[in-house]
Amino acid sequence: MTNWTDIGALEDIPERGARVVKTHIGCVAVFRTIDNEVFAIDDACPHKGGPLSEGIVHGRSVTCPLHNMVLRLDTGLAQGADTGAVNTYPIRVEGGRILLDTAKLRRAQVA
Amino acid sequence: MTKNLVVIGAGMASGRMLEHLFDTQPGAWNVTLFNAEPRGNYNRLMLSPVLSGDKTYAEIVTHDTDWYEGHGVTCRFGEKVERIDRAARIVHGENGPVPYDRLVIATGSNPFMIPLPGHDLPGVIPYRDLEDTERMMGLGAKPGAKAIVIGGGLLGLEAAAGMAARGVDVTVIHVMGHLMERQLDEAAGYLLKKALEAKGITVLTSANSKEIMGTDGHVSGLLLDDGTELPCDLLVMAVGIRPNVALAKEAGLAVGRGIHVDDAMITSDEHILALGECVEHQGAIFGLVAPLYDQAKVAADTLGDTPAIFTPKEVATKLKVTGCDLFSAGDFAEGDGRDDIVFRDPARGIYKRLVLEGERLIGAVMYGDTADGAWFHGLIKDKTDVSDMRDTLIFGPAFQGGAQSDPLAAVAALPADAEICGCNGVCKSTIVDAIKGGATSLTDVRAQTKASASCGTCTGLVEQVMALSLGDAFEVQTVKPMCPCTPLTHMDVRRLIKSRGLKSMAAVMQECGWETSCGCASCRPALNYYLLCDWPGEYQDDDQSRFVNERMHSNIQKDGTYSVVPRMWGGITSAAELRAIADAADKYNVQTVKVTGGQRIDLLGVKKQDLPDIWADLNAAGMVSGQAYAKGLRTVKTCVGTDHCRFGTQDSTGLGIRMEKALWGSWTPAKVKMAVSGCPRNCSESTCKDVGVICVDSGYVLHIGGAAGLHIQGTVVMCTVKTEDEVLEYTAAVLQLYREEAAYLERMYKWLDNVGLDHIVARVVTDADSRKALADRFYYAQQFMQQDPWAERTKPAFRNLWQPLADLTLEAAE
Ligand SMILES: Cc1cc2nc3c(=O)[nH]c(=O)nc-3n(C[C@H](O)[C@H](O)[C@H](O)COP(=O)(O)OP(=O)(O)OC[C@H]3O[C@@H](n4cnc5c(N)ncnc54)[C@H](O)[C@@H]3O)c2cc1C
Ligand code: SF4
Ligand code: FES
Fold first, then answer.
1. pLDDT band at A42 (very low <50, low <70, confident <90, very high)
2. Is residue B672 within a helix (H) or strand (E), and if so which, with residue range?
3. Domains in chain A: how many in total?
4. What is the pLDDT at residue B402?
5. Which parts of the sequence belong to the Rieske domain (chain A) (predicted)?
6. Is B420 inside any structural domain?
């Protein structure tokens, strides 16, 4: 099942920035890259739970604000020497609106 | 028997279809062609060369009267179709009905007009047809005419360049951070902006239009969100197009964003075809001609009952503005399993970026040298396996075949007159000669030949030439690059920002040859600081390039909550302030209230979404942000001095307050702490601060370069001065010198170690002119810096950013 839910406008997220969406499985961080792509991942770093939505976004990656772990936004995988992963969630932009597939929110497992 | 074919719209798509039709099925159709424009088919793309004066309208006509007559087309130009009667298969034009066996809808698209107040004033036009073009051309005849173009995409820029070529004073307003963001990345957008500005066009990016102003019933200017008013005689809106579906929709055809068509270009009614910009095919709509020409061929085949299938292809974009060589094709977003190859030649203003996925090239952006565009586009379209030529791919087709895998061998193979340093025109033999003449280090070579002395991007090449000439005797200097995005050091970058006048992050990344497209978490905050420091009032602070504490104006704690610290000038507070702090602590459930080492109060454990409210409350009680998170002035710690202490020699408290009020708000490479002690007993620990003042009977001893963190470092004495005013001038001067010279994140004591006390004394103490100039620069920048971040961020526009984007927990859980 897919359940695309409108969570806001693309403009609501700063370029190279993020906002969070509260869900019953916890906060999901929604990122917007310089190329206006949108990604959704857990808002908790696999290292010590740092809020990834507050990190610096570069290319398709985010650097955790607490201890600088770098995570890919598209795969959720830690980069470089670090290991670890966060869940990613299906998300897309249609006519300037951001749609999150809320049906996947509860089934998601760490890949 | 000939059948009746009616075509609505004599545009580029239907024109091409008719050509195919008459080629493959001569005499099969009796064609009636409607066109709302009072003319037949012309090459719409070429309106821009007509606008700029490079072509005339006659040169861009595709089908003239003879052509239509020769093919027996009944032309109903200047006549709009009003209605389609599908049941009776009749099209109703303004001047009467026509029956059809097959109907083709090719109505193109309508320019989108932003419904700003005043958008319907005379003088506000789109850019779509010959009439619009003629309006713009007419402006060129009027001396001193001004035009505004809203929209920095392909069309808007062609309009702007065309009018500028006719002597019109043009300003482009673009809402995004860089031009043509759909086709270009930031670096290419920056080069494009530079080239347009060189043509005299003013380009405002990140600019929001608010209202179109009119005088005497005609457009007279544009008002921006930030209050800027720009006068104009003509305003062109080029912000996008919408498929023109009105007729089809009214006739009851399946319509989404465009008219739905299948792979054979047939609509939901089998007698009706549609093609061009008015259609939607598998969810996609179109804005460039290449795919429309494919559609035209498919539609002609379908009419002749030959099975044909339309498959969308990668399209490439070129901007038709003389002097702006630009090309983009495919998908150039970064991604997993995707690899970027970036090539920059700052001296010649060239930028190329290729995006690879696995063995395939999937996207290309080029600026400055687009000669290889067609070749790259071919590789993308054909999905060619490029793994064999990967290393040299970016150098284009000419380079394939004799690839050099060993870089040193490649340099060895260069002829003696090969240019190594583009900025200073230094060739290989000049460097080799310098080495033969005794130069053994990069510094020597730079000093003697100027190679790599300007932009520095050729440093690697110069070192390779040295390694070849000197053999083992040469050790590549281990200067630490700023980050993996660049081989340049912090100091190289700072020098270039100044000397080349680089005023934006995109400018720095392009001119210094960054190897990534938008930097990383270590270079972006540094660049943001350097630009802010070097171009006060010009460079716009970039929140997204700041670490969380500075972006949130609070310190993030390990549980994701924040701490809030209001300023207490010189460590002095009052009953009223304490009461407001206590109230805030209650109201926002502050977990911990802590007195800090910097003589103020820290409220710990505030939730992110409460930040704007608690700030507003503290603001209301007269307090501002203590910037306890900032790489900037933290506190000025004081003792009670002559006010209360029997040892006090000067008013240490009053001086501390004066200093804090003068110096707060400034950004520095790393945090700065200060203190003022009333006598050498040093109760406020001045000798382990970045700047410490110790009062003595005869005046004030100024200390610098202390720290008490990971490293404990005592201060050194810079000088002794007589008055409080002097303390302020000297402190501002030394702070400014530090701001201008240190690397990002370098504490003052480290900088002191690097440059030496003598250098600082020479600039700040001995040379009064230099000191005054430094202090002046510091205070000039302060007018932009001294704004309470709390007060700004409690404004409604900002507040939202602290709230969740959406709250889905409120939805009924099934
Ligand atoms: C200035 C400019 C520069 C461009 N540059 C490029 C470029 O460099 N590269 C590129 O690939 N593309 C470019 N384009 C886009 C390209 O021109 C369009 O993609 C193409 O013209 C679309 O063709 P079309 O046949 O679908 O529509 P059009 O060419 O717009 O033709 C549609 C016709 O239908 C008529 N019509 C609409 N409704 C009715 C009705 N009810 N009754 C009768 N007639 C009607 C209209 O008057 C119009 O003449 C440019 C466009 C413009 C305006
Ligand atoms: S530093 Fe001197 S003046 Fe200040 S409180 Fe201590 S003893 Fe008194
Ligand atoms: S919590 Fe993210 S790196 Fe430590």
1. very high
2. strand B672-677
3. 1
4. 43
5. 5-100
6. yes
Distances (CA, A) of B594 to B653, B660, B709: 22, 21, 19
pLDDT number for residue B436 = 86
- Mutate which: A21, A30, A35, vs B, most B CBs within 10 A: A35
- B564 vs B791 pLDDT, higher one: B564
Around ligand 2, the residues with Cβ closer than 6 Å are B 639-641, 645, 647-648, 652, 677-679, 681-683
Q: Is B809–A23 a contact, with Cβ atoms under 8 angstroms apart?
A: yes
B795 contacts: CB under 8 Å, gap ≥ 6 = none
Q: Does B547 or B447 have the greater pLDDT score?
A: B547
d(CA A80, CA B46): 50
Using alpha carbons, select from B537, B532, B487 the residue that is nearest to residue B740: B532
The reply to whether B135 and B231 lie within a common domain is yes
Cα B23 from Cα B15, distance rounded (Å):
13
Q: Is B719 annotated as a binding residue?
A: no
Number of domains in chain B: 7
- For B85-99, how does the pLDDT look when each residue is reduced to its tens digit (9 = 90+)? 999 999 999 999 999
> Do B571 and B703 sit in the same domain of this protein?
no
Over the stretch B377-395, which tens digit does the pLDDT of each residue have?
Answer: 878 888 888 888 877 788 7
Q: Are residues B513 and B580 in the same domain?
A: no
* Contact state of A49 with B560 under an 8 Å Cβ cutoff: yes
- Put simply, the answer to whether B552 touches A54 (Cβ < 8 Å) is yes
pLDDT at B742: 94
Statement: residue B15 has pLDDT above 90? yes
Task: Identify the weakest region by mean pLDDT among B350-364, B418-432, B518-532.
Answer: B418-432
pLDDT tens for B620-667 read 999 999 888 899 999 999 999 888 898 989 999 999 999 999 999 999
CATH code (residue A73): 2.102.10.10
Domain extent at residue B506: 490-545
Residue B88 lies in a domain: yes
How many CB atoms neighbour CB B606 within 10 A? Answer: 23
Same domain, B521 and B620: no
Q: CB B185 to CB A35 under 8 A? A: yes
Q: Is B324 annotated as a binding residue?
A: no
CB B69 within 8 A of CB B3: no
Q: Which domain holds residue A51?
A: 4-110
Pairing of strands B699-704, B716-721: antiparallel
Residue B229 contacts residue B213 (beta carbons within 8 Å): yes
A8 vs chain B: nearest CA distance in angstroms? 7
Q: Which of B510, B463, B516 is nearest to B355 (CA)?
A: B516
**Closest alpha carbon within chain B to A14:** B544
Residue B539 burial (CB count, 10 A): 20
Shared domain for B380 and B274, answered yes or no, is no
- Reported confidence tier of residue B334, pLDDT bands at 50, 70, 90: low
| Same domain? B779 vs B679 | yes
> What per-residue confidence (pLDDT) applies to B303?
96
Nearest to B566 by CA among B634, B511, B478, B658: B634
Question: Residues B592-627: pLDDT tens digits?
Answer: 999 998 999 999 999 988 999 999 999 999 999 988
Is residue A32 within 8 A of residue A17, CB to CB? The reply is: yes
Residue whose structure tokens are 């392909």:
B154
Q: Give chain A positions within 8 Å (CB) of B558.
A: 48, 66
Interface test with B, best of A7, A22, A72, A86 (most B CBs within 10 A): A22
Per-residue pLDDT at B422: 62
Query: Does some domain include residue B311?
Result: no
Q: How far is the CA of B650 from the centre of ligand 2 (A)?
A: 10
Q: Residue B506, Cβ neighbours under 10 Å: how many?
A: 24
Q: What is the pLDDT of residues B266-283, one digit of tens each?
A: 999 999 999 999 999 998
Looking up residue B726, the CATH number of its domain turns out to be 3.30.413.10
